[in-house]
Design a protein that fits this description.
The protein has 13 helices and eight strands. The protein is of the alpha/beta class and 271 residues long. Helix 8 links the parallel strand 7 and strand 8. The radius of gyration is 18 Å and the shape is globular.
């Protein structure tokens, strides 16, 4: 399984978006997912960092949990499909692709892909704002990001527990700081809903939902690389974060049942 664990340093990336062919997409439970390898994903996404702030773009990573939410909630599914980029994350997406006779070219989860993107675009004067996590951890996350990615300017941060007034103030602050990249770590479906609801107000070329990335940058230990290569990071997450057991123990079988039902429905239409 391809991963983003070993980021290429300062990969030269073109300044025009690589066309995405229809064969490079698949639909899983109503969500259109891109299927590039890592190199192609970097070339697809990186030009958006210098895009027009008046035409902002969104990037989401979808896994079995995300797709379960999308299957149950049409409004969330529509929000995901409005994004410019939707990338497949995890074993569940690979299972879904195999049922369609498709091999996923890479496991493009945000926890690995975003650091790879930051490394690949280092030293270009790009600016980033961090939104999400708790009031107690967001400051540590900002300092960790500055230390880890010195080729980027991390211009500000805000926790993710915002009321309407705080949301308006935070958007104003983000726009005043003119970042190229906004990373939003609220967990899904909240982070994708937040980006979708406010994308038109944000003058940021690219906004990305990154789930638990800030926790990994500040204080949570990742699964060993060999566990990730086996596609079993979800088991490790359950041992570290027991509150997520329902997502996996209940959610994974539900996801497989939904995939089976979808395939049966498609076969009935083909008759």
């Amino acid at each position: 399984m391809a991963t983003c664990d070993n980021p290429p340093a300062n990969v030269p990336l073109p300044h025009s978006t690589v066309p995405v062919e229809a064969s490079d997409r698949l639909r899983i439970l109503g969500v259109d997912v891109l299927n590039p390898n890592l190199d192609s994903a970097l070339r697809l996404v990186s030009p958006a960092l210098q895009g027009d702030p008046s035409d902002p773009q969104a990037l989401y990573f979808v896994n079995a949990h995300t797709l379960n939410n999308a299957a149950a909630d049409p409004s969330y599914r529509r929000a995901l499909n409005r994004a410019r980029f939707v990338l497949g994350d995890g074993t569940g997406v690979r299972w879904a692709a195999r049922l369609q006779g498709v091999r996923m070219r890479a496991n493009l989860n945000g926890t690995d892909f975003i650091p790879t993107l930051l490394e690949a675009t280092s030293g270009r004067g790009y600016r980033c704002y961090l939104l999400g996590a708790t009031p107690e951890t967001i400051g540590r996350t900002l300092e960790a990001a500055k230390a880890r990615f010195p080729g980027w300017s991390f211009v500000g941060c805000q926790h993710g527990f915002l009321d309407a007034s705080q949301t308006a103030d935070t958007i104003a602050e983000i726009n005043s700081l003119a970042p190229n990249l906004l990373l939003v770590a609220m967990g899904n479906p909240l982070q994708e809903r937040w980006i979708d609801a406010h994308l038109a107000e944000l003058r940021v070329p690219l906004s990305v939902g990154v789930g638990g990335l800030f926790n990994f940058w500040s204080h949570v230990r990742r699964a060993p690389r060999w566990v990730r290569k086996l596609g079993c990071e979800w088991l490790f997450v359950m041992t570290q974060q027991p509150a997520k057991w329902r997502r996996y123990v209940y959610g994974n079988p539900l996801f497989m049942a939904r995939l089976a039902a979808e395939r049966l429905k498609l076969r009935s239409w083909d008759r």
